[in-house]
Write a structure and sequence with these properties.
Domain HTH tetR-type (chains A, B): 19-79
Organism (chains A, B): Streptomyces xiangluensis
Strand content of chain A: under 5%
Keywords (chains A, B): DNA-binding
CATH architecture of chain A: Orthogonal Bundle
CATH topology of chain A: Tetracycline Repressor, domain 2
Number of helices of chain A: 9
Shape of chain A: elongated
Protein name (chains A, B): TetR/AcrR family transcriptional regulator
Order of helices and strands of chain A: HHHHHHHHH
Distance between the termini of chain A: 63 Å
DNA-binding region (chains A, B): 42-61
Structural class of chain A: mainly alpha
Oligomer: homodimer
Chain lengths: 201, 201
């Protein structure tokens, strides 16, 4: 019994360390993708950035594809959680919700995801993984959007209205890739927030 | 006089050949970008695809950046011309115009442009060229959209409404990158065509 307890005590910090290593690798992978693109993002580069040996990185993620799809999924989940936390009482002012949804698609996380998508369109090894990931993340985001916008999808056209809004958000993310598009985006979001509020009522 | 005329006669077919070579290079460059991405698109690969010597390719386009930005600009101009030709009488049924605008952002030309944008976000040599090109093509597309949608930009919010539509079109292009998103896109476009028609009246 004493030996079992001692074993548990030893294992817990080890698991914590392992979890912390994994998380450092995932965060480094996203930062690396956003900064250097797919061509410049290898397991070695990420391991070095995370301060982890290449062997330890490969223990957690056997292939390059494993590492980068897990990384984009990890940050997408983090962002979903953060989005829900912004509106703890559920449905909220629609203009604020539209703004928060669009914010999901600007910044380094979207940039990293975009690099992964574009690379997947030319790499057969990557494509099925990213396609599946994109579908999963897209469904989750749609689900949150419907809930927070208090959109009644049983009414004709409402589902497509929300989908179009999320497509617009992705397009706004793309427009922010090369230049700071913040001022224009602010005006577009304000106007479409008003339109959506009317259409969804 | 006879010698001058003879010189002219000789020069005309040479100019034609030169123009045809340039055009073949531009078309091969776009196809190459769409299929292989920026990393797989070099002047040599494009020259071979176009059936042109590497030297001739470099005569027309001294750098890789020259070739690919010229190529994306060339096809963007072709598509603008084709879009105007679809609606020769100017303003038209808004649902049809929305559909035609969204069509600009699906298919190999958008895919090629997307590869160029994403590469430009990580390559300092490419970024200013592509930023400038994107701004120019974006302005031209906005101009055509305003005209064909019969949108009165002197009214508050109309400019931002049209901009948001074009952002949505780019987002729909992105959603079509890894899978055939045609059926979903069709429903989104139908719904947003209705919304836009009401908002703009």
């Amino acid at each position: 019994m004493g030996a079992v307890n001692a074993g548990l005590v030893d294992r817990v910090p080890k698991q914590d360390r392992s979890r912390a290593t994994r998380q450092r690798l995932l965060e480094a992978a996203v930062a690396c993708l956003a900064e250097h693109g797919w061509a410049g993002s290898t397991v070695s580069v990420v391991a070095e950035r995370a301060g982890v040996s290449r062997g330890a990185a490969q223990h957690h993620f056997p292939t390059r594809e494993d590492l980068f799809t897990a990384a984009v999924e990890y940050v997408a989940e983090q962002r979903s959680t953060a989005l829900r936390a912004l509106f703890p009482d559920g449905p909220a002012d629609r203009r604020a919700v539209v703004r928060a949804l669009v914010d999901l698609y600007t910044g380094p996380v979207f940039r990293a995801a975009l690099h992964l998508w574009v690379a997947a369109s030319n790499e057969d090894q990557l494509r099925p993984r990213v396609t599946e990931l994109e579908a999963r993340v897209g469904r989750e985001t749609h689900h949150i959007a419907v809930e927070l916008l208090d959109a009644d999808e049983s009414r004709p056209g409402v589902r497509e209205t929300v989908q179009g809004l999320l497509d617009m958000a992705r397009g706004l993310g793309l427009a922010n890739l090369l230049t700071d598009d913040g001022a224009r985006r602010e005006r577009v979001v304000a106007q479409w927030g008003n339109i959506l509020d009317e259409v969804l009522d």
